[in-house]
Amino acid sequence: MGRLQQLLFVSLLIFAAAIDGTQGDAMVTGTVFCDQCKDGQRSWFDYPISGVKVKVTCTDSNGQITMSREETTNWFGNYAVKFNGAPDLSGCFSQVSDSGQSSESGCSVPAGPAQKLRLMFRFFDMEMYATDSLLSQPAQPMSNCPKSTNPVPAPVTPVPPAQPLPVVAPVPPAQPQPVVAPVTPAIPPPSPAFRLPPMPPLPPLPPLPSLPPAPFMEASACPSKSWTMPEYKCYWRMVNPETKVAVVFGSLAARRYGTDMTLMQALQGRGDPYRTLLREGVTSFLNSYNSLQFPYNTIGVIQHMDWALMGSTRSVLLTGLRFMRANSGHGTVNCTFTPCK
Question: How confident is the model at residue 309 (pLDDT cuts 50, 70, 90)?
């Protein structure tokens, strides 16, 4: 596709977004972690869990429930709950309502307090709320968890009472002995100090070997067409071309695109706004694994895909355009692919 055709396609997408009817939505996002140490807080040992049901509840001044929605966490432990009409969710909260499929991983006990919603931004009549991490716990804590900072004091061993001392007969005073002057021994003269001969200088250290190249530290952004070429197949990491879209992006993507579509098929989507979103979303997902300097991280790509699929057609187009701009490198970052050996 030539540059003029690309500009025309982008202009059509922006025009379609502009004429699309307004639809106010409010979305709540967050993550559920498995609290392996059962200490009620996040630590290095905790990890996100999937299949957990999270409920977002809103109450009035009398404590009566006015709204309630429930969703299940995806493969990366994230959840996204949608409310139509952009209601005010400032007084609402989220909490783990059911362990669901997480019992298979051994982390099945809801724990921790409910978390209040925080308004992140308002944009095009859309509201985005976020919450602090929610926790679920296993039946027993992990064996190698750090010990508590307030350990239980060791039990005090009682000391037996002291026994009375035996009575000893007095000893008569000793007779005085004659004083004898001490004899000072003769001190031998000091021996001459022994000196070692000078040591030869040490040889210089060999130069350290150069570090191996780390291509994932370099800035790189590659379009969808590059990811479909066989000579660049070695750049696929963590996933392969036959991985299912539903496995990577979760239940929302499965409802829209089905459970049989692969990532390679998604990269060849054209024409339809939802297929365009999927093509650019999969491309951003692969670029995030290939370069740490890519504008989106892996979890961020999945979250933006979920938000777009829960929103209007305009949000689908805008998210697809943002992914496309990141995959093009913003005009300053090139694709660093070289043919695989």
Answer: very high
